[in-house]
């Protein structure tokens, strides 16, 4: 799907696989939530499971560039979480899909690509049947990709985060309710995907 | 089409005006307002019917229309229309043409109810489905509905009723607190009162009736099979509401005699013409009804939740009585049983002893005569026993007495047939208590006269009187018969001959109330004319086969060579035929055949509406089977689920609620581990049931059979969970008096003799007798004289436990204790010598008189005591203890390996560590080899000061302070630390957790362990409150630390664990408590954790958890 440079470090390899996977997964989430009309997507096979690919170039590019921009940081293990946030007009988040990433920096042997892909595949499978767990969103809601860094990243060309800006989306005051979707932990990559909803008790802000 | 119809109407009207004779001035014509539609072929033909309609002011429709037609006339309907009656008839009455004719003849419009088409009428009168026996709760809808109705003020119902064209009897509303439940029922019947839901009845008490108002649809007057769904639509549903009341309040009812409680419920339907035919009895399953109505009357507060169909079914089943009677007999006469164990095989040949004499005793029509033994006025009248005496008469006669037999009444025929043969026939119900009593008396007499008794059934036995003191066997037989009659009031017949076969045949001739002796030289003569069918083992099939060969008597059978018989009928059968035809029978008296399989089957009254009913029924069936297995003291490995499926072309069964024509399907499954546990059975049964892929509505019978039986003795520790409970329960359930308690004092001797111990086991209070009755302790080992121990134990029980126990004895315990006190010390010391091998009572001379038992018997009871005693352990003089143990023990340990625990997990660690080194070494050596490793990995340093270190560590592990959470110590290492800790715990559940860790493979995920815990679930822990708290704490810590380990990497796993824990918490209060403790803690942890606000969806879990009273 994407061109791959020959990279020596296992982290780089892992990060590339991960980014590619997240691109597909995020597209699937957006499709799942029905923010855009189904016509904006086309069915594709990825890792031999049905996935959706954005047809609209803007959407496709947004997802693609956001994530490839993260690649260097992920490789260095700076990114803690990547979240897909759905929010309403008041910028109050309604639902969040969170990828919690752990890239083992100490790992230095060969990455078993097939194993990794096999594990990641199960995320997509699980995601496709998770619609019932999600909330119905209001019509005029929007979404964005957010990433959480362990430390504030350096905004320079080398890190590739230049396209990233601080978010204006508000945070929930109450701890959210978490619904796990899928987790994997293997070497050198651990990924957890879960949903967050505003807690029942607390107010939205 | 409309035009055509219009034209037809015009034609009809024109014809009517010419033919209409104008009923003169007598008012309206007969069929005024009636408009019929004739469907298919009828007699008289549709044209004739049209003529009647013309003449009498009715209308006749050539084409069916929902709006114009009022009645459908037809003689026959195809199946498809019957099945889909609603869409066919649009809810209109479907009547036979005779309705028209009869109405004309009667010159008035007759109520059509009795003219309903037979096909429909049978269905609507309907055989109530099994669902009717279940509480409303079972169906989610009717539950809602019931609550609605309850919430509704009664007046509201009353207000509605007139509108709804209902007939409400005053009495029904007479009581203010009368509770009514409405249920949409799939019966046309306008009303049905169900006395069967014992549930509500009991909870509302005596004065309150339970009434169920059945809504039927007057508009359609058809069975609303799907009405459960539709019922929400009250507009349709409540058109015809009627109430009725239990027949108990109907003095005028002829059938309300004592049997009335059993099944007769008459509906009252005064006045309303359209419903005047609705009076019929509910014809319920008489069994559940009888018991339930009894409940109403006596207002006994027993089963609150349970419809108890299965239980009641078996409670009232004769076959079940006979089947389970065997277990009872075994318990009552264990000596005979065990004494003849060696001669188990029926093929076992005995050296033919010419002198042998066998007596076959058989009670005359046992099931009848027992019931009427106290009713002299019935003695010479024809009487039959039957479970039901309802007017339908489709119940089967189970047994008839001789006067009745003279009329041709036999077992197995329908009551109605029997009554037609013998109009005076009196039908009596079963009386199982009496049967039991008489059977016991009967066998008591037999055992008195003869020591070789083989029980065949509750009323039939063989005696080997070859070496009897009384030479004259005829005389002996007379004595026995007389004694049986004097004691029980029932007659017995006796056959005497040289072997069992001939004795049995002789009894044939002896009956009724006689005896017959066939001496050896008369055998041949006797057999000559004997029809082959009389020989045991020859049934219809064999008889037919032989008849085809022109063999009718034994004489003819003897002409066939053994070889040719064997060739044709197989080796065994051929051999049997050859032998029997010559009067040869090599079986010896005393063989009591072990049952090869145990099971329960219900094929009467089984009707399901949905899967839920079915599953529920299955659960009850499993309970029954489990009880039977436990009763027989066996566990099985192979499980067979049999299902009777209605044949597609089978109509309603002749026998009321019977199974009818069925296909028999079965699936079976063999598991590696024998079980008798309800839960296990249920799981297996569900699995098997799923294999059938069957529509539950088609099921007419189900049976669960367990084979590959193993003695529960060799079973596993899993069963010991019940010890404490059974100990307390059995203490309470059997009533004891002083004399029986005395037998405990003498129990020492009895215990030494395993058999006797068994015999008196029901009388024993505590300990080994109960253990042995449950079959957990190897009977070969010398049972410890716990009678001595018990007193000591009881004496030292914590006050609350003691008082509880005392309550169970209704206070006798205290007085008994005080009496015994003097002797106690003596007996304790006396007991010690013999009891050492398994139980070592230690009596340190302490001021508070602490009595401490080091018990190596793997018994939960003692484990509990250790926990209780935890606080006093320190005070026990270790040296004193060890000295005594060492002194007494020595060599005896090795002899009694079988009393050693299976695993270290059953030993109190603290006790172990208080033992001196040499003892400990010896003890560990005796453990099974594979367990040794676990011993070595014992985290507690063995060489350290036993008292301090072990105790402190132990308690530390148990109570695991909250501060230790951050240490994550439980999940360090491989295997993680908790595994060892849990293994050492005295809590069975924790032990299981530890065991499961190994079983679940190397991954060691908590979820898989929980999953396993769920599958081999332990309902009872047998723990004291202290132990329980500790165990819960342990579990909580395990969870907390697990979450900390996993929260960074695998929330899914945590989530899964909590789901599982929640499910477990529904099963047991232990997990519920643990769950409730863990939940808030987890939330606080996750709030404080570094990752931002990772709070799992626990609220949701929590909300789903219905709080249960513990």
List keywords for this structure.
heterodimer, A: 205 residues, alpha+beta, Cell Cycle, Spindle Assembly Checkpoint Protein, Chain A, five-stranded antiparallel sheet, two-stranded antiparallel sheet, 3 helices, 28% strand, B: 1110 residues, alpha/beta, five-stranded mixed sheet, four-stranded parallel sheet, 52 helices, flat, disordered C terminus, HORMA_dom (chain A), HORMA domain-containing protein (chain A)
Can I get a quick summary?
Chain A has 205 residues and is an alpha+beta fold. In chain A, 29% of the residues lie in helices and 28% in strands.
Question: In words, what does this structure look like?
Answer:
The complex is a heterodimer of chains A (205) and B (1110). Chain A has three helices and seven strands, in the order αββαββαβββ. By secondary structure, chain A is an alpha+beta fold. Chain A has one domain (10-163, 172-197): HORMA domain (Cell Cycle, Spindle Assembly Checkpoint Protein, Chain A). Chain A has a five-stranded antiparallel sheet with strand order 5-3-4-7-6. Chain A has a two-stranded antiparallel ribbon with strand order 1-2. In chain A, α1 packs parallel to α3 (113-128). Chain A is globular and about 45 Å long. Chain B is 47% helix and 10% strand. In chain B, the strands form six sheets. Chain B has a five-stranded mixed sheet. The radius of gyration of chain B is 36 Å and the shape is flat. In chain B, β12 and β13 form a beta hairpin. By secondary structure, chain B is an alpha/beta fold. The model of chain B is unreliable at 123-306, 335-353, 714-790, 822-909, 927-967 and 1087-1110 (pLDDT under 50). In chain B, α48 (1006-1015) runs parallel beside α50. Chain A binds chain B through residues 102, 172, 174-183, 185, 190, 192, 194, 199-201, and chain B through 1048-1055, 1086-1087, 1092-1097, 1099-1100. β6 (177-185) of chain A pairs parallel with β22 of chain B.
């Amino acid at each position: 799907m994407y061109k791959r440079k020959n990279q020596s470090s296992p982290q780089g390899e892992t990060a590339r696989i991960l980014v590619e996977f997240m691109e597909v997964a995020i597209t699937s989430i957006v499709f799942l939530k029905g923010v855009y009309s189904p016509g904006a997507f086309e069915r594709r096979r990825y890792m031999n499971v049905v996935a959706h690919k954005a047809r609209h170039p803007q959407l496709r590019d947004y997802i693609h560039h956001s994530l490839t921009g993260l690649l260097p940081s992920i490789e260095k293990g700076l990114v803690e979480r990547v979240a897909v946030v759905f929010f309403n007009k008041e910028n109050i988040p309604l639902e969040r899909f969170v990828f919690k990433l752990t890239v083992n920096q100490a790992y230095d042997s060969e990455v078993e690509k097939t194993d990794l892909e096999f594990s990641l595949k199960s995320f997509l499978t699980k995601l496709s049947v998770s619609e019932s767990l999600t909330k119905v969103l209001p019509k005029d809601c929007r979404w964005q990709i957010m990433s959480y860094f362990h430390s504030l990243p350096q905004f320079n060309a080398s890190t590739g985060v230049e396209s990233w800006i601080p978010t204006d989306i508000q945070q929930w005051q109450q701890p959210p309710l978490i619904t796990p979707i899928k987790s994997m932990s293997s070497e050198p990559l651990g990924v957890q995907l879960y949903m967050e909803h505003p807690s029942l008790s607390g107010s939205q802000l | 089409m409309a035009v055509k119809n219009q034209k037809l109407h015009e034609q009809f009207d024109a014809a009517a005006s010419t033919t209409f004779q104008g009923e003169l001035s007598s008012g309206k014509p007969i069929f005024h307002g009636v408009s019929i539609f004739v469907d298919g072929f009828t007699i008289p033909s549709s044209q004739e019917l049209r003529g009647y309609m013309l003449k009498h002011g009715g209308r006749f429709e050539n084409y069916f229309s929902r709006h114009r037609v009022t009645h459908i006339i037809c003689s026959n309907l195809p199946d498809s229309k019957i099945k889909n009656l609603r869409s066919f008839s649009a809810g209109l009455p479907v009547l036979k043409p005779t309705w028209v004719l009869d109405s004309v003849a009667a010159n008035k419009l007759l109520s059509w109810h009795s003219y309903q088409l037979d096909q429909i009428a049978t269905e609507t009168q309907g055989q109530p489905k099994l669902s009717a026996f279940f509480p409303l709760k079972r169906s989610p809808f009717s539950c809602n509905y019931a609550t609605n109705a309850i919430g509704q003020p009664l007046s509201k119902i009353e207000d509605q009723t007139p509108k709804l064209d209902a007939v409400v009897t005053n009495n029904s509303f007479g009581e203010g607190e009368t509770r009514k439940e409405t249920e949409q029922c799939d019966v046309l019947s306008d009303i049905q009162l169900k006395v069967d839901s014992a549930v509500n009845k009991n909870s509302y008490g005596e004065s309150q009736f339970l009434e169920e108002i059945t809504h039927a649809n007057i508009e359609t007057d058809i069975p609303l099979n799907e009405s459960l769904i539709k019922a929400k639509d009250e507009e349709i549903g409540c058109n015809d509401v009627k109430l009725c009341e239990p027949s108990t309040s109907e003095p005028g009812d002829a059938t309300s005699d004592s049997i009335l409680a059993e099944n007769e419920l008459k509906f009252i339907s005064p006045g309303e013409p359209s419903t005047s035919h609705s009076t019929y009895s509910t014809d319920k399953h008489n069994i559940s009804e009888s018991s339930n109505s009894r409940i109403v009357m006596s207002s006994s507060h027993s089963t609150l939740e349970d419809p108890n169909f299965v239980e009641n079914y078996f409670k009232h089943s004769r076959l079940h009585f006979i089947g389970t009677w065997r277990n009872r007999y075994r318990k009552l006469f264990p000596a005979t049983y065990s004494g003849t164990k060696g001669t188990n095989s029926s093929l076992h040949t005995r050296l033919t002893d010419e002198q042998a004499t066998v007596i076959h005793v058989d009670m005359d029509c046992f099931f009848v005569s027992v019931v009427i033994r106290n009713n002299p006025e019935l003695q010479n009248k024809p009487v039959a026993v039957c479970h039901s005496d309802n007017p339908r008469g489709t119940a089967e006669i189970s047994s008839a007495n001789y006067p009745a037999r003279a009329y041709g009444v036999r077992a197995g025929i329908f009551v109605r047939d029997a009554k037609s043969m013998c109009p005076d026939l009196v039908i009596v119900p079963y009386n199982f208590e009496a049967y039991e009593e008489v059977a016991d008396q009967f066998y008591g007499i037999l055992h008195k006269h003869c020591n070789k008794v083989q029980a065949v059934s509750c009323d039939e036995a063989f005696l080997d009187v070859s070496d009897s003191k009384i030479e004259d066997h005829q005389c002996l037989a007379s004595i026995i018969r007389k004694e049986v009659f004097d004691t029980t009031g029932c007659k017995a017949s006796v056959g005497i001959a040289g072997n069992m076969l001939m004795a049995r045949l002789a009894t044939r001739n002896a009956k009724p109330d006689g005896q017959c002796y066939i001496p050896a030289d008369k055998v041949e003569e006797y057999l000559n004319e004997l029809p082959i069918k009389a020989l045991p083992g020859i049934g219809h099939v064999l008889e037919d086969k032989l008849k085809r060969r022109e063999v009718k008597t034994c004489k003819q059978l003897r002409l066939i060579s053994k070889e040719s018989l064997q060739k044709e009928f197989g080796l065994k059968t051929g051999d049997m035929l050859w032998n029997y035809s010559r009067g040869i029978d090599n079986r010896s008296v005393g063989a009591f055949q072990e049952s090869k399989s145990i099971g329960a089957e219900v094929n009467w009254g089984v009707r399901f509406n949905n899967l839920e009913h079915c599953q529920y029924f299955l659960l009850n069936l499993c309970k029954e089977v489990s009880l039977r297995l436990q009763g027989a003291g066996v566990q099985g490995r192979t499980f067979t689920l049999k299902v009777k499926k209605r044949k597609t072309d089978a109509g309603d069964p002749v026998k009321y609620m019977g199974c009818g024509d069925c296909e028999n399907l079965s699936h079976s499954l063999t598991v590696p581990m024998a079980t008798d546990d309800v839960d296990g059975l249920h799981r297996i049964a569900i699995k098997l049931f799923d294999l059938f892929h069957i529509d539950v509505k088609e099921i007419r019978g189900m049976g669960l059979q367990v084979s590959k039986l193993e003695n529960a003795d060799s079973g596993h520790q899993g069963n010991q969970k019940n010890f404490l409970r059974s100990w307390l329960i059995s203490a309470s359930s059997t009533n004891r008096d002083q004399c029986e308690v005395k037998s405990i004092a003498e129990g020492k001797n009895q215990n030494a003799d395993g058999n006797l111990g068994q015999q008196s086991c029901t009388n024993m209070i505590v300990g080994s007798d109960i253990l042995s009755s449950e079959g957990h302790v190897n009977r070969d080992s010398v049972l410890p004289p716990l009678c001595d121990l018990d007193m000591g134990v009881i004496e030292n029980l914590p006050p609350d436990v003691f008082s509880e126990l005392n309550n169970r004895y209704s206070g006798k315990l205290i007085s008994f204790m005080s009496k015994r006190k003097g002797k106690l010390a003596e007996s304790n010391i006396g007991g010690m010598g013999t009891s050492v091998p398994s139980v070592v009572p230690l009596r340190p001379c302490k001021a508070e008189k602490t009595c401490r038992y080091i018990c190596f018997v793997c018994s939960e009871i003692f484990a509990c005591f250790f926990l209780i005693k935890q606080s006093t352990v320190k005070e026990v003089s270790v040296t004193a203890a060890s000295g005594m143990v060492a002194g007494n023990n020595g060599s005896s340990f090795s002899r009694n390996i079988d009393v050693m625990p299976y695993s270290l997990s059953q030993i109190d660690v603290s006790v172990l560590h208080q033992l001196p080194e040499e003892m400990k070494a010896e003890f560990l050596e005796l453990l099974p080899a594979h367990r040794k490793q676990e011993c070595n990995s014992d985290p507690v340093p063995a060489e350290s000061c036993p008292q301090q270190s072990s105790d402190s560590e132990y308690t530390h592990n148990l109570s695991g302070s909250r501060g230790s959470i951050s240490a994550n110590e439980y999940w360090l290492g491989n295997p993680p630390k908790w595994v060892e800790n849990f293994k050492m715990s005295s809590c069975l559940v924790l032990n299981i957790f530890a065991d499961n860790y190994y079983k679940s493979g190397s991954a060691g995920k908590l979820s898989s362990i929980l999953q396993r815990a769920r599958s081999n679930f332990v309902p009872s822990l047998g723990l004291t409150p202290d132990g329980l708290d500790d165990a819960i704490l342990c579990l909580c810590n395990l969870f907390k630390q697990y979450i900390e380990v996993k929260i960074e990497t695998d929330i899914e796993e945590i989530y899964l664990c909590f789901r599982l824990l929640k499910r477990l918490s529904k099963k047991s209060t232990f997990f519920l408590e643990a769950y409730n403790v863990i939940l808030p803690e987890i939330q606080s942890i996750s709030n404080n954790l570094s990752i931002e606000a990772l709070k799992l969806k626990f609220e949701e879990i929590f909300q789903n958890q219905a709080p249960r009273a513990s």
